[in-house]
Amino acid sequence: MAASSYMMFQVFCLISVFCLNTALQCKVCSKEDPNCTIGDNIESRTCDNGEDLCFTWFGRKGIEVRVERDCISSGTKGYKAMKKVTGSPNVVQNRLKPELDSIREAGTWKSERIISTSQSAHIKIEHSSNQLLNFCANNYLGLANNPEVIKASKQAIDEYGAGLSSVRFICGTQTIHKQLEQRIAKFHQREDAILYISCFDANAGIFETLLKESDYIISVSTIGTEKQDELNHASIIDGIRLCKAKRLRYKHKDLSDLEAKLKESYNDKNENVIRLIATDGVFSMDGTIAPLREIRRLADQYNALVFVDECHATGFFGPTGRGTEEHFGMLGKIDIINSTLGKALGGAAGGYTTGPKALIDLLRQRSRPYLFSNTLPPAIVASAMKAIDLVENDTSLPGRVLENAAYFREKMQNLGFTILGDAHPICPVMLGDARLASQFADEMLKRNIYVIGFSYPVVPKGRARIRVQVSAAHSKDDLKRCIDAFAEVGRQLKVIK
């Protein structure tokens, strides 16, 4: 009863405040500035009276969601009540505010622009009528809004419902979940596969389940250091932290260092010790490709297993889109593959592990993210199966995205930009300074090119960049417009001559 009364009091306070303060508004930035639409933009969260409270909420007008703000005057009765309702304990404020301020001061604050259309090579964002060219999505094949993918998703909702309200082993497995797992295993030429709600969950579940204290996990470290494995995806890093195996790190693409770590772990007296080499197939921030042939050779020499995260390869890399191992002509040679359905294969969500049946059986019994997370919704399962159909039936799709990437890389390098990576559609335009990367992205947006600046902690300090991602859905005209905008902004900010 007490809790219910307090909730009613909160609602009353909110209503009272809005009634008393409808004429008061916070200072706002220009409506033409897309950053103005960001609810946490500090420039739009101040009042003329510094003691007043700027209250921000989201309001809906038709299908449009808008950011609304009003000043709550310190002279009104509702002010103290609102501060009590919305305020955080002092210990939280004291701890978090300096950290938040430091992020802003460093120029690494990440704002979220709100997209008002479907994901595509051409999009619109809230509070702007301009159509933007999108060069920062993982939508490598342009299937996120493909009509056939959408149709399959709708049909699945009609037949199987919106969701299962259950984990897999209780009452959360439908016919289509088993069908997709079989399709994934066949696509990768493996014995079996297991679905997760995301590849982050797949990576969180694999190492803890497979490896014991006597085992070794050997993963990639950042360039020139053994302190942090920043080049591997965050989900691999976090997954490794959950397991009890001994951890060794080798330098990025340094095969001599990898062999030294394998020698350190080698114990021919105990055949039950697992030595697992864990690597991304394609490193998502640098666009570099792991040397899988040489890694496989060393693994065979030292009786080790190889795990590869193929999130930035599945569906579009290799002649038929089967990933990094196919790119190197060694399909079926990697022991364990984790990948995603949330990038090239429809772009919705979902991840998986594929490999030996014994491993998949064990994951079904012991993998905590699998056992304690709701099952993948039927609509996503169906859209992923349709995406696999499209990739298998049109082998020109992978070729198209790689052709676009090669064109973009060549033209940008000719202009004088430093582009990291190998022959891959992840094309990091290196800028170094975090503020410069953020400013560069803002200037590109003014030219209707949607790209994002990446800085610490997403990438190491001093290695800020614009990560351009090229899609099969981009036309040559799209690519030329993007390159021309880069040239104009690059000269304006003195990045190139």
Class derived from helix and strand content: alpha/beta
Q: Given the C-alpha coordinates, what overall shape results?
A: globular
Distance between the termini: 70 Å
Secondary structure: number of strands = 15
InterPro entries: 2am3keto_CoA_ligase, Aminotrans_II_pyridoxalP_BS, Aminotransferase_I/II_large, AON_synthase_class-II, PyrdxlP-dep_Trfase, PyrdxlP-dep_Trfase_major, PyrdxlP-dep_Trfase_small, Snake_toxin-like_sf
Keywords: Acyltransferase, Pyridoxal phosphate, Signal, Transferase
GO molecular function, one term: pyridoxal phosphate binding
EC number: 2.3.1.29
Descriptive report:
By secondary structure, the protein is of the alpha/beta class. It has three domains: 19-87, no CATH class; 122-143 and 396-492, Aspartate Aminotransferase, domain 1; 161-393, Type I PLP-dependent aspartate aminotransferase-like (Major domain) (Aspartate Aminotransferase, domain 2, 3-Layer(aba) Sandwich), CATH 3.40.640. 41% of the residues lie in helices and 16% in strands. It has helices at 2-20, 77-86, 90-105, 147-160, 168-171, 175-188, 199-210, 234-242, 255-265, 292-301, 324-327, 357-366, 368-371, 378-393, 396-415, 434-446, 476-492, and strands at 53-61, 64-72, 122-123, 132-134, 192-196, 216-221, 246-251, 275-280, 305-309, 336-340, 351-355, 426-432, 449-450, 453-454, 464-469. The strands form four sheets. A seven-stranded mixed sheet has the order 5-11-10-9-8-6-7, sandwiched between helices. It has a three-stranded mixed sheet with strand order 3-4-13. Helix 10 links the parallel strand 8 (275-280) and strand 9 (305-309). Helix 4 (147-160) runs antiparallel to helix 14 (378-393) and helix 15 runs parallel beside helix 17 (476-492). The protein is globular. It catalyses: glycine + acetyl-CoA = (2S)-2-amino-3-oxobutanoate + CoA. Residues 131-486 form the Aminotransferase class I/classII large domain. Pfam families: Aminotran_1_2. Keywords: Acyltransferase, Pyridoxal phosphate, Signal, Transferase.
